[in-house]
Amino acid sequence: MIKEIGPSIPGRLGITGEEKELLYKFLRDEIGREGIRALAIIWFDEGKTEAQIADLLFISARNVRRWIRRYRENGILGLHDGERTGRPRKADENIEKAMEDLMKKKPEEVGYKSGFWITRLLCVHLFTMFGILFSDSTVRRVLHRLDYVFRRPKLWSGPSGENPPEIKKVLEEVKKTKQSSSIRTKQASIFCLC
Hints:
It contains nine helices and no strands. The protein folds into two domains: 17-79, no CATH class; 85-167, no CATH class. Helices cover 59% and strands 0% of the residues. By secondary structure, it is mainly alpha-helical.
């Protein structure tokens, strides 16, 4: 919707041509409520009443009045959404500190029969410490904030990918059994053909 902006004739809010151009740009660029607020300001400046704007946008006239007031006080910046507090975190600083200390230890040191931490085990341990049941996703978010990354455990992660001697021995035995089974298979197929 491109609207020709005529000569700079201020309306009810005294919006100049440049300001109206900025409002139209804001309307195009912003998503959702913020863009609709710019449209309401433009319509109000062009002479529509608060009730008419509310009917056109399917909102209350009270919201339109609030947006106009915010625009008068702060200009185009007043049309942006403000900070919202939201629900407080379940895992506060004390729990983050406890998890950080816990991640420095192995599960065996704390009394679990596991070689590494998993989120479910951390949830259980935090429940025994604080009496609060955390979800796996909450524990993952805390670990992410603490810069921990969950990866699948590897059999060996030595320098330059070399395997320890025990694993090399097992791999050689597996290769030998594969070779000997393929020789037996060939002999069996030759025997069957004759």
